[in-house]
Amino acid sequence: MKINHNEDRKFTLWVLAWPVFIELFLQFLLGTVDTLMVSRISDNAVAVVGFSNQLFNALTTLFATVASGAGIVIAQKIGSRREEEARTVAIIAFKATALIGLVLSVILITLPRPIAVLLQLPEELLPLAEVYISIVGGGMILTAIMSTLGTAIRNTGNTKGPMYTAVGMNIVHIMMNYCFIFGAFGFPQWGLTGVAISTVISRLIACLVLLFIFLGTFERRIGLKDFSLYDRKLFKEVLVIGWPLGINSASWVFSQLAIFSFLAVLGSTELAARTYMNTLESFCFLLGFSLALAAQIQIAHLYGGGRTKEAYSAVYRTLFIGLPLVIINAFILVLFGKHVLGLFTQDQEILTMCASLLWLNLLLQPGKMVNMALGNALNAVGDTRYTMKISLIFMWVIATGCSYLLGVSLGWGIVAIYICMIADEYIRAVLSYFRWRGRKFLRQREEELSKEEAKSAGILSGSPVLTQ
């Protein structure tokens, strides 16, 4: 297959990664500023935001099945020079995820308190949770649309569009947070309710911008009549890759939600500590995750174009760059993390608890980096069932089951829960490494290309191709 060098430059790791990094950094900044501003309301408000975000993350897996699968198929189709099929996949994914998001919005608007009670949120946090879940959860359709549009645009090689959108969304969100929390510039002082409203409005604006970019992201512009497009075969391709991705993602998010529920049983102090640690941990793997996500796009593109040797080596380049960055960031956090936490809370019990967790985070992050890189590489070539299987087994047996046994039943607390999370990451990292070394899906792709070339040669020569 002829190599398009202009397109190759578009799909290099650095060109893909730096806008993704800035986009994710701004999302991290949004979460940090959210937590910092909400901490001015109360530690209870911080716990509600952290708990609610885990719930929302869990629910996003219901449309991530389609969005993630579509993203990989889009990159593969563009790599194999089938842009029209990539365009159709993007449109189908947009419609499917918007419908799922709408259903989730209705459920969260109507049942916020029963959901919080079901997930064992402490009684004193229920009034705040009811307000926050109903408002932010009511905008789940916006989250679904943002996820799909951003994924589709990013997997065409345009990682800058979502980045610029994230810049605008963060500016709007931070300004509105300031106005609603502190009553600045004549705005009402609405506290956590204002934070929720600010979140929904900023996401609505982001959706509109991403939709504008999406309409012109392919060679043939998407028009209103194109939204009636449907191709059963292409949608099946998305689901074949996407459903294990969705279960994999759900496995991680729901296991984290379960762990948050265990922390809620231990007490609001542990729940707040984990929420603050989530914010700090984001700093550690931010650049590494950007590289892993960029590598997934690059590997899917190379795989679609039949360049399997380049696809195989791409993940090792990602690890060579990403692992040192993650380790250095985690070590910096050990040195300065407690001072940063002082900006969020003055509760000495929470600060002492987080100080010990920072050392454990130094062990946790390298395992996460290897999982991100190798897991994304396996997903990029379509080996999504394997990553799903090991996630289902080890996330639930080690990370979740052992967390409950050691942290709650035996009373060893949040430190034991972190140790279980570390063990889960390293076990899956080792298994993913050996799976990638086996090159199963890469060899299958090479065989497919050999057959296609043999068939094409037979047609061009006018001679029949012998088959066994």
From TrEMBL:
The keyword Transcription does not apply. InterPro entries: MATE_fam (IPR002528), MdtK-like (IPR048279), YsiQ (IPR047135). It is a multi-pass membrane protein. It comes from the Bacteria. Keywords: Cell membrane, Membrane, Transmembrane, Transmembrane helix, Transport. The chain crosses the membrane at residues 12-30, 55-76, 88-111, 131-152, 164-187, 193-218, 238-265, 315-336, 386-406. It is found in: Cell membrane. NCBIfam families: matE. This is Transporter YisQ.
